[in-house]
Amino acid sequence: MPRERSGAGPIPSPNIWHWPDIYETENRAQDVDGVVFGALRALADWSGRDVLDVGCGTGFHLPVFARDARSVTGVEPHPPLVARARDRMREAGLAVEVVAGSAERIPLPDDSVDVVHARTAYFFGSGCGPGILEAMRVLRPGGVLAVVDLDATVGDYGDWMRADLPHYDPTAVEAFFGAQGFELTRVRTRWEFDSREDLRAVLGIEFSGKIAQRAYEQTPGLALEVGYRIHTRRAPAGLLLP
């Protein structure tokens, strides 16, 4: 989910808002070995707990949480994606609620969830403070906010990110989250596509034309290594009384 501008609503996502079908292809190709979810389960196990997925998009990740969670809610600001996510849950027969909202205005009560998950959505470093405060508001004591983002220090994908975003400083982003009390876990994943055409299409929505072409030429097969950072912050559990 994109970051909000004060009083102007969310900034459109440059990929899923405009090319949801290609982004669906990207979601299917990402982390085919399940490394991110494995790390997330170790950091913030959602079994039997209430989960909130912030910026859930078309709801791709919601069924994974729904297998073990007590309840799952997806929040998404873009109405067409809200509709697609609801359709997905209905077709899958899952009792998952998808609501319109944003990271800065989550339509849930205080202390109502145990895990807040946000993957490549809104929480991109400096400027996301309001969203962090909002996540802390809805978390119960001891609950966890887990922010999953791409690691621009890893491999060819990281090189392409830094070339495409010359003002993006991954070290500064990590320092920001560290200063906000987050712990950092790094994981390396494998993306694998069904075809070179799918690979080209996904690179085309993630990078500018020149960098996308460079990335395509530097990826000889159907797979590539992509690093992720998982930033986690736990809500205070409160005082222990004698």
TrEMBL record:
The GO annotation for biological process reads:
methylation
Domain of life of the organism encoding this protein: Bacteria
Mind telling me which Pfam families this protein's record contains? Methyltransf_11 (PF08241)
Enumerate the GO terms in the molecular function aspect: S-adenosylmethionine-dependent methyltransferase activity
The UniProt record lists the Methyltransferase type domain at: 52-146
The alphabetized UniProt keywords are: Methyltransferase, Transferase
Statement: the UniProt record of this protein carries the keyword Transferase: yes
Q: What is this protein called?
A: Class I SAM-dependent methyltransferase
- Native source species: Rhodococcus spelaei
